[in-house]
Design goal:
Layout (H helix, E strand, L loop, with lengths): L4 E7 L6 H13 L8 E8 L5 H6 L6 E6 L5 H15 L5 E4 L11 H9 L4 E5 L6 E3 L3 H17 L11 E4 H11 L10 H10 L6 E5 L1 E3 L11 H16 L7
Parallel strand pairs: 1-2, 1-4, 2-3, 5-8, 6-9
Antiparallel strand pairs: 4-7, 5-7
């Protein structure tokens, strides 16, 4: 199959986490059933104050491109930069796998996610709410917030179980539809809520959204979390109110 897999890593001060994550990706590719796919890694270094860009470039054996923001612009801007770049260089039959750069999302889930996409899924989510999912190292408060957000989203917008996890495999043609259909409003959220909003918009077109159980490894993460939980929850609730009340585009 000629399709390419693009791996998008939005990163802010992840110099300690990028090398083990990328080494894990190399191991996953080497063990890929049927042989390693054509894979391109795009790291968006979002104004890091450590040497994240150099850390990403330090891992040999991968086709890695690093795009640097200066200064830090937030996850929304990093996702816009990365997805726009991949859409400019990829084909509709390619896949984009986005995951966190903090080494909490194991790359060994990728072959199963791609297998579901090969079988016809337009979007595959690594979900905390599928049987077999495991969460290691996450405190009780954040676990509760994640559960509450999932329950609310499933009630308001049926179609997926985990709307907030950023570990996803997108069919490139679906992303291109989103960019063409919504224009500048496709990725118009500034922070972590962009992950929710992208899914809310793409579910209008996706014929099949599937999930695989997520293995979440916060116990492997080095450094402090970048997410401000209460601020993110408040922003997401405001977004849901706007989308649920009939404003599917934005802001």
């Amino acid at each position: 199959m000629s399709r390419r897999i693009w791996v998008l890593l939005p990163a802010y001060n992840e110099a300690l986490n990028l090398p083990p994550l990328l080494e894990g990706l190399k191991t996953t590719l080497a063990a890929w059933p049927g042989g390693a796919p054509d894979c391109k890694v795009v790291v968006v270094d979002d104004g890091s104050t450590d040497n994240s860009a150099e850390a990403a470039r330090s891992v040999a054996g991968l086709d890695t491109e690093v795009i640097v923001h200066d200064p830090n612009q937030g996850l929304g801007a990093a996702m816009r930069t990365g997805i726009t770049h991949v859409l400019e260089h990829g084909e509709d039959d390619d896949y984009l796998i986005a995951l966190d750069a903090d080494n909490t999302h194991p790359t060994q889930l990728m072959p199963g996610m791609v297998a579901k996409a090969d079988a016809g899924a337009d979007l595959v989510i690594a979900s905390r709410f599928q049987p077999g999912a495991e969460i290691h190292g996450l405190d009780a408060f954040r676990t509760f917030v994640s559960w509450a957000a999932s329950w609310l989203l499933r009630v308001m917008f049926p179609g997926a179980r985990d709307y907030t996890c950023g570990y996803r495999c997108y069919r490139m043609g679906l992303l291109r539809w989103g960019a063409d259909h919504y224009g500048r409003e496709f990725m118009n959220q500034q922070g972590f809520s962009i992950m929710v909003d992208i899914l809310l918009k793409l579910r209008r077109k996706a014929s099949r959204i599937e999930e695989v159980p997520l293995l979440l490894r916060y116990d492997l993460k080095q450094g402090a979390s970048k997410m401000k939980v209460m601020q993110t929850a408040t922003t997401t609730l405001r977004l849901l109110a706007r989308r649920f009340c009939g404003n599917p585009r934005g802001p």
